[in-house]
Structure formats: C-alpha cells, structure tokens
Design goal:
With about 575 residues, the chain is α+β, with helices and mostly antiparallel strands. It folds into 4 domains: about 180 residues, Nucleotidyltransferase, domain 5 (2-Layer Sandwich); about 170 residues, Nucleotidyltransferase, domain 5; about 110 residues, Substrate Binding Domain Of DNAk, Chain A, domain 1; about 50 residues. Helices cover about 35% and strands about 30% of the residues. It contains 14 helices and 27 strands. Strands 1, 2, 3, 4, 10 and 11 form a 6-stranded mixed sheet that branches. It has a 6-stranded mixed sheet with strand order 17-12-13-14-18-21. Strands 20-19-23-24 form a 4-stranded antiparallel sheet, with no helix packed on it. A hairpin with a 5-residue loop joins strand 19 and strand 20. The chain binds adenosine-5'-diphosphate and magnesium ion.
Length: about 575
C-alpha cells in the first residue's frame, strides 16, 4: 500500500510517492504545484487548485486562499452555502491531491505523511493532522518542512559528513533548520522560525509602497481593485527575480500614476521583513552552538527564496552562495515521500536514520512565592526546552498551595518568555486532588513530545497513585475525535468538481478572469474565443474538444503575456 508524502503549503501544495525513489505526482492539469485555493461554484460544487485560483478575482466571495495561516484557529470561512474551518479547507486540498495520486497509480490511497512548518505550534500540528483525517487519510506522520527538504537532499548525500542550514521562505511562513549528516544519520540540531513571515508579506509591502506613492487610501478601494493591485504587486515581485526593474501601473485607471520598482526600492520597502529573517537564523545558530562559518552549505527552499534579496541576505550572513541544484518548490514533497518510504520500511532506505527536535519550549504556568510571602501568578515553568531531541519526555512535580484545594488546574503554554502572558496558551489541564496541608499533595506531570511534534500530557497524583492521561481542553483550534468524525461525514457529501473536467473548466475560468481584467478589443476577442470553446464543449465530440482546447489555451497564454507587459 502506497503512503503518500504531502507538502501542504500556504500557496501551493504538492504530493509525491516513494517507489524506490521519491516521485512527484502531477495534478489533473499535468502540474506538480496545486495552488492551495478552494472555491465554490454556482452549483455548490467545490473547486480546488488553479481552477479555484482563477476565480479568486472573478468570484472573491466564493473563493479563498492562504487559509493555512488560520490553521489552529476556529476561524470560519463562508463559501456559498458552506461554512468551513481552516482544517476543512486544507482537507479539500488534501482530498484533491489524494484523488490525483489515485488517478495516477490507479489504486486507492489511505495513508499519508504531511509536512508542516517546523515552527508550527502544537495546535497547528493537530489541525494539520485533522485535515489529513478529514480527507480520508490516516496521517502516519507529521514531518517538519525543512527536515523533509533536507531528507530529499540527504538521500543523495548519505555518505557525506556535512552541516547544512535549510532556509525555507514560503508564502506565509519562514523556517530555519540546521542539520548534521554523518554515517547515514541525519540529525536536526536546531530549528527556529516565524509563522507569520513569508513571500506574501513582501507582496503586501510592494502594494503598500505603491499606495503610499499614489497617496491612495486602501480602505477606499473596492474588493476587485484591491485584488487587482495585489495581483500586480505579486507580478512585480516575481518579475524582479529576473529583471532589474518593473514599471507598476494600472491599465485603464489613469488616476494611478506609473511607479518604477527596482531592487533597491524593494529592499528598502521590505527592510523590516529582511530584519525579521535574521532573527530565527541567529537563534538557530546559537541553539546549535555553531557559528556561521561552521556551515558547509545553505539549502534554499520555498518559492520566495527566488527573490534576489534573499540571496544577498544569505551572502551577507554566511559569506557563501546557497546550493543551487535543489528545487525550491519540490524538495519538501520529495522529502515527505522519503519519509513515507521509511515508514514503509523500504530496503533502499536501510540505515538512513533521522532525528528531529522540538523547535520551541513547552511548559506550564506556575505560581512563585515572593520574599514577602506573597504568591505571584503568571510565571512560565519550562518542561521541554526548545531544540530538545524528540521524542522527549519530562516529568515535574507540583504541589498544592492551600489546604482547601481540591483541584489542580495547570495551564499549558508554548513559548520562550518568562511570563506566560507573552507565550501561546495551548490549553488547560484540570483534575481533582485530595485535600491536605500546603505542599503535601504532589502531582507528577509528564510531558511527552512525540516524533510528530505533538504534545501529550499525563498526570499522576502521588498520594493516591491516580493516573490520568489528560486531554488539553478548551482550545478552540483543536477538533475532538467526535467532531472530526462528524465533519468527515459532512465533507463526504460535498459535491467536488469532476476531475476529468478540470482542464476545460480551468480554461473557462481563466478566460473569464482575463475578460474582467481586459478592456476594449481584448475583451471582444476573449468573448469570441470563449464562445467558440464553449460551443465545442457543447458538441461533446472529444476530438473537436481537444482541438478547440489547444487553440483556446494558446490564445489565453499569448493574451495573458501581452496584458502583463502592458
Ligand atoms: P508555500 O510553501 O507557503 O505554499 P511556496 O514555497 O510555494 O509557498 O512559495 C510561495 C511564495 O513564493 C509566494 O509568496 C510567491 O509569491 C513566491 N514566489 C514564487 N515564485 C517567485 C519568484 N519568481 N520570485 C519571487 N517570489 C516568488
Ligand atoms: Mg512550502
């Protein structure tokens, strides 16, 4: 039974399988990258990927992107009649990838390894695992994205003894991991990151730069204009990865002046973001007790590392160029497939051992007794410190503070601050204890952080021997088992667009988007070509459809290129 490896990205998702080596699987459009976008059409059918992405502009209220940023929250997105949690939107992407693999392998798939940003917290990891389950997959393993990328690299360099830094800047998240390879062992020494820093933020800073230059108040713009401007900012950002400057303009809107963006201006607009990238790099080096000169290579992954400003930051920080033969988009999914191969105990992977770390500190809130004898709340007591090798298990004892106390309540936090108010609250553990003099009733709390980066907590009341595996309660970002079961059934009855129609519908959606963006003669041409193509589809003759499709596709590609260089 094949286990699939999934890179569930903020912007793009990919899937790969292990068959003696990791292999990427194309989607219904023949592409490896499936945009992480979900939409609903007029018939309440669910659309995923490029088809949905085209409709972000034409149907903004029925399409959603970047929902990975909401994982671990209970934020609801309404699409048509449907209401979705972030893990359900992610599940729809996973389902689409699963369907692509099943079409490719011609057999059902039931198990998966899914990657997450190393710096994803406990709640976000649980949400990711739930997304896989909601898509009908058993999630064999949740693996850190930079670790996965390093595995894709390491599988070809097993004999080498080397230290590498993985720098992963995706659409919405930034991760840094430092790994050591020796004797077929791959050891993560340290991970650090920022869950709210990615290519999307650079697009936003370009957009803001343009608005400031044009003295436009963003709140005055309608949804479509804002979307269109964002689209242009994205285009400008990507163009600058290949050219020296880009003239930012807004066709058909003379009130927007031309604005020239070059590397220097982009660097100055995004200075705060560039500064933020330094922080996790420095922390990871410090935690691994390494200096920048100790690194043999730098591995760049994530689409946003294509920005020249990332390469110049790397050159400044490390005095060397990054490795260039690793594909920034594909490495994570390939690595997840290597992990799937390890799970399936493939012989080709014998003696390939991986150890990973917990990238942040986990602990509980405690009360301190001040010199005056006054009790002060709100202190963080670390249980598992960041960059501890996983799986890890730690025990601490806590005692009652008053003779009337009959319950213990332990708030669980993740973070690095001495005061819990600055850390992330993961939930509360509550259980009864016998009464007794202060300090006499002790409770042993055990934290276990498993290889998936998921936390489990067990408490034992020492005097009674009562043991309890505790479920972290009251976290709106985590679905219970029963809730997952209930939502699984709801998702199962959703109508998903037929896979075989994807290509045709994608072209129509693209035609409609370009029509809305275009003006004058271009519009007339698009409308004519759309009618021709729709006419051919109505005839239901496969060879005629194929020919019409090729023609329409070519037409759209040329037109899109022309419109971009306007
Ligand atoms: P994720 O892992 O979050 O899905 P990806 O690794 O696919 O993200 O990267 C997506 C980000 O990469 C987006 O912000 C996108 O704008 C950016 N990106 C893709 N290609 C380029 C390019 N040529 N130049 C600059 N940024 C790019
Ligand atoms: Mg990614």
């Amino acid at each position: 039974m094949a286990i699939i490896g999934i890179d569930l990205g903020t912007t793009n998702s990919l899937v790969a399988v292990w068959d003696g080596e990791p292999r990427l699987i194309p989607n219904a459009l023949g592409e490896f990258l499936t945009p992480s976008v979900v939409g609903v059409d007029n018939n309440q059918e669910i659309l995923v990927g490029s088809l949905a992405q085209e409709r972000l502009y034409t149907h903004p209220d029925h399409t959603v992107a970047h929902f990975k940023r909401d994982m671990g929250t209970d934020r609801i997105t309404s699409l048509g009649k449907h209401r979705f949690r972030p893990e359900e939107l992610s599940a729809l992407v996973v389902k689409s990838l699963k369907r692509d693999v099943e079409a490719y392998l011609e057999k059902p798939v039931t198990e998966a390894v899914i990657s997450v940003p190393a710096y994803f917290n406990d709640t976000q990891r649980k949400a990711t695992r739930a997304a896989g389950e909601l898509a009908g997959l058993r999630v064999e393993r949740v693996i850190n994205e930079p670790t996965a990328a390093a595995m894709a690299y390491g599988i070809h360099h097993r004999e080498k003894e080397t230290t590498i830094l993985v720098f992963d800047l995706g659409g919405g998240t930034f991760d840094v991991s430092i790994l050591e390879f020796f004797d077929g062992i791959m050891e993560v020494r340290a991970s650090a990151g920022d869950n709210f820093l990615g290519g999307e933020d650079f697009t936003q800073s370009i957009l803001q730069g343009f608005l400031d230059f044009s003295q436009i108040d963003k709140s005055q713009l309608d949804h479509k204009t804002r979307n269109r401007l964002r689209h242009n900012a994205e285009w400008a950002k990507q163009a600058l990865s290949q050219q020296e400057s880009f003239v930012f303009q807004f066709p058909g809107k003379p009130e927007f002046q031309e604005w020239t963006l070059d590397h220097e201006l982009l660097e100055s607009l995004s200075k705060p973001l560039i500064d933020r990238m330094r922080v996790p790099v420095e922390r990871a080096l410090r935690d691994a007790s390494l200096g920048s000169h100790d690194l043999d290579s730098i591995l760049l992954i994530g689409g946003a590392t294509r920005m020249p400003l990332v390469k110049s930051l790397i050159a400044k920080m490390f005095g060397k160029l990054p490795l260039s033969h690793i594909h920034p988009d594909e490495a994570v999914a390939l690595g997840a497939a290597v992990q799937a191969g390890l799970k399936a105990r493939d012989e080709a992977l014998n003696e390939f051992v991986l150890t990973d770390v917990c990238p942040y500190t986990l602990g509980v809130e405690t009360i301190h007794m001040e010199d005056s004898g006054k009790l002060k709340e709100g202190y963080f007591c670390p249980m598992i410190e960041r960059n501890t090798v996983i799986p890890a298990s730690r025990v601490e004892q806590f005692a009652n503070i008053s003779r009337f106390q009959s319950r213990v309540e332990v708030p669980v936090y993740q973070g690095e601050s001495r005061m819990v108010k600055n850390n992330i609250h993961l939930g509360d553990l509550k259980f009864p204890i016998p009464r007794g003099r202060p300090g006499t009733q002790t409770v042993e709390v055990r934290f276990t952080y498993d290889i998936n980066g998921i936390l489990e907590v067990e408490a034992t009341v020492v005097s009674t021997g009562l043991k309890k595996r505790l479920v972290i309660e009251k976290n709106p970002g985590v679905l219970s088992k029963e809730e997952i079961e209930r939502r699984l059934q709801q998702l199962a009855v959703l109508k998903i667009h037929p896979r075989e129609e994807t290509e045709n519908r994608h072209l129509i959606a693209k035609g409609e988007r370009l029509y809305e963006e275009a003006l004058g003669k271009n519009r007339i041409d698009i409308s004519d070509e759309l009618s021709l193509f729709e006419g051919a589809l109505d005839k239901q003759d496969p060879s005629r459809i194929r020919k019409a499709r090729e023609r329409f596709k070519k037409f759209l590609a040329i037109l899109e290129e022309e419109m971009r260089s306007l």
